[in-house]
Amino acid sequence: MLSLRDIDEAMNKIELDEFERALRISSEVGLTVKLFDTTFLSLLRTDGHPGVYRQFQPFAGGNRHRKVQNDCLHWCLPGPIESWNDFVTSRKTRKKFKIGK
To answer: Where is the Trichome birefringence-like C-terminal domain (predicted)?
Structure first.
């Protein structure tokens, strides 16, 4: 089982808190919103991390010149975001043609 660590946990909490806020606001104006939480889906992929900040405080200790792995792979090539698109497209297609839930 995957578990959230450091920055992943902090970012996920912020995202869920903001979604709760969006739910409250949307219900006041009669809108329905749904959350597609990609946190664990993204953690399953080795290229599913947000740059150097995939580790909590990568430059802690004052070493601003420390070599850390940076990543633009998932922005430049097919990666986690395309997986999210596949899931959303599948969900919309199923709903349109009333296949499953």
So the answer is: 5-89
pTM, 2 dp: 0.57
Q: Which residue, chain included where needed, has tokens 């969900």? A: 91
Contacts of 47 (CB under 8 A, 6+ apart): 71, 73, 74, 79, 80
Residues 86 and 50: their CA atoms lie apart, in Å, by: 20
**Do 78 and 47 form a contact (C-beta atoms < 8 A)?**
no
| Interval 8-54: pLDDT, tens | 788 889 999 999 999 999 999 999 999 988 888 877 776 665 566 55
> Where exactly are the structural domains of the chain?
6-96
